Sequence to fold (111 residues):
Amino acid sequence: MPPTPPVALDKAYSLALWLIAKTETMPRSHRFTLGGRIYEHALDLVGALTQATFTRNKTAALETAGDRVNGLRILLRLAKDLHLFAFDPYVHATARLDEIGRMIGGWRKSQ
Fold:
């Protein structure tokens, strides 16, 4: 029986679904540049947490996941400053990222 996915993976998956929907509503001039980067970072975060869930050596995958969280924070701030995200969706996304980041930090400490 496979291990139960950690809460961080579930939250990252939910955030990725939400961000993918948000990037689809960006103006065409930003959808494939900044929107694409946000989309890729969100998917990379889910991928890194999936790898951490199913491998013995979790350190590298958790480090990558932490990097993706930090990268997404910057990309989302840029999207907000360019008025591609309203303030409330930005706050929602960054609050979820902070929560995921704390979970990743705790997971890394337990290794």
The CA atoms of residues 10 and 27 lie 29 Å apart.
